[in-house]
Structures are given as structure tokens and as C-alpha cells.
From TrEMBL:
Name the record gives this protein: Monocyte to macrophage differentiation-associated
Binding-site positions, Zn(2+): 80, 205, 209
InterPro entries tied to this protein: AdipoR/HlyIII-related (IPR004254), Hy-lIII (IPR005744)
Keyword set includes Ubl conjugation: no
Main localization (coarse): membrane
Compartment(s): Endomembrane system
Domain of life, per lineage: Eukaryota
Pfam families found in the cross-reference section: HlyIII
Membrane-protein topology: Multi-pass membrane protein
Organism: Perca fluviatilis (European perch)
Length: 239
């Protein structure tokens, strides 16, 4: 009984249907710090890929991917800070909550961009380069129209967008890095359990943030190693 009471200090009751969960002050702090600490590393990582780029197309790709990565952690942090200190920021809180959801769609698209732009793809798979952004735009329209109304549908959209572009990756002539890509995807999927566990597990959303950070790190490592570092090494050998 004492253990249950101690958990109640760190966790509120589950939210009712079509309502957002209200974290405790401890959960608010964890939600902020778990992504705030990754903002600077994300910018550094983008700069590193940009420096390793050999041509304009690689630099653009590094910028698109890096901005998606940075925006994810930055917008998430700002939203959680505003939510934590929301006394006179109701409209701004809603605005950043919508932005937080929208950024996830564009982050998924940006995460696929290096693979779709810098690897040779089959004729059908090549269309995924623009289709993944079309899906992000469709997800954005959905969020603006049905924000917090159909949470299961929204989660299904995220998962569909995460898995559907992966179906074309097998058409690559060079499949190096796909194991890391799959590993990162698995980490995201495991984290979804905590994403949907607010009010059941203390600090569930912060734990979800940790899973996002781990998966993003695995994907960044694969992009750095197989798409940028390898190309840079080839260029040095040619010199």
C-alpha cells in the first residue's frame, strides 16, 4: 500500500477519452530535460554531416535531416516547458502541442531522406523520395483538423509512416546500414508502449523520450557511418 502511495506522488490518473494527460511536476521536469539535453548534440551532429558532405546534394540532405532532428528535440522541449509553466499560456500551449505532433511527421520524413537521396533506388522506390513528404503533409492536415480527438488513429498514422517507406529500402543495391535502420525502428516501436502508458507507469512519457533519443542515435550513427563517413573515405582514397 505504501508503494502505491509513493507512486501517486510521481504519477496522476489516466486522462479521460479525448483529453490530454496532465503530468505531475516531477514528470514535467523529466519530460523537459530528457529532450532539452539533446538539442545541442543534434545541432553538432547536423554540422558534422554538413562538413562531411562532398557536394551540394549531400549538403542539402544533411541540412534537411539535421533540421528535422533538431526541430524534434527543440519543439518538444519548448512545448513541455510551456506546459510546465502554463499559468498564462493556454493558447501558446495548444499551439506548441500541435507543432509537437506535426514535427514528428516531418522528423520521420527527414530520417528517411538521407537513405532515399543518397542511395541508388529502383524506379518505383525512387518515388518515395517525394511521397514520404506528401505523407508528412497529410499528417499535418490531420493534426490541425482532429488534434487530440482520435488518438489511436493518430498513432496508427505515425506507425504507418514509419514503416511504409521502409518497404522500399530492400530495393537498394547497397544494403549496408539497413540492420541499424531496423534496430532503430524496433526501439521506436518498443517506446510506443510507454508513449501510451501515461497514468499507468510513472514517468512514462519521459521514458518514451529516452527511447526516441536512443533510436535517433542509432539512425544517426548509420547515416554517419554508411552514407557520409564512407563517402568521405572514398573521396580521400581517390585523392
Amino acid at each position: 500500500m505504501k508503494r502505491v502511495n509513493s507512486f501517486q506522488r510521481f504519477m496522476n490518473r489516466r486522462a479521460s477519452a479525448n483529453c490530454r494527460y496532465q503530468p505531475t511536476r516531477y514528470e514535467h521536469a523529466a519530460n523537459c530535460y530528457t529532450h532539452a539535453l539533446l538539442i545541442v548534440p543534434a545541432f553538432v551532429g547536423m554540422a558534422l554531416l554538413h562538413r562531411l558532405s562532398d557536394n551540394g546534394w549531400e549538403r542539402i540532405t544533411a541540412w534537411v535531416y539535421g533540421m528535422g532532428l533538431c526541430a524534434l528535440f527543440l519543439v518538444s522541449t519548448v512545448f513541455h516547458i510551456i506546459t510546465w509553466k502554463r499559468s498564462h499560456m493556454r493558447s501558446m500551449e495548444h499551439c506548441f502541442h500541435v507543432c509537437d505532433r506535426v514535427v514528428i511527421y516531418f522528423f520521420i520524413a527527414a530520417s528517411y531522406t538521407p537513405w532515399l537521396n543518397l542511395r541508388e533506388l529502383g524506379p518505383l522506390a525512387a518515388h518515395m523520395r517525394w511521397f514520404v513528404w506528401l505523407m508528412a503533409a497529410a499528417g499535418t492536415i490531420y493534426v490541425f483538423n482532429y488534434h487530440e480527438k482520435y488518438k489511436v488513429v493518430e498513432l496508427a498514422f505515425y506507425l504507418m509512416m514509419g514503416f511504409f517507406p521502409a518497404s522500399v529500402m530492400t530495393s537498394m543495391s547497397n544494403t549496408e546500414g539497413l540492420q541499424e535502420l531496423a534496430c532503430g525502428g524496433l526501439i521506436y516501436c518498443l517506446g510506443v508502449f510507454f508513449f501510451k502508458s501515461d497514468g499507468r507507469i510513472p514517468f512514462a512519457h519521459a521514458i518514451w523520450h529516452v527511447f526516441v533519443a536512443l533510436a535517433a542515435a542509432v539512425h544517426y550513427y548509420a547515416i554517419w557511418k554508411y552514407l557520409y563517413k564512407a563517402r568521405g573515405a572514398d573521396s580521400l582514397l581517390q585523392l
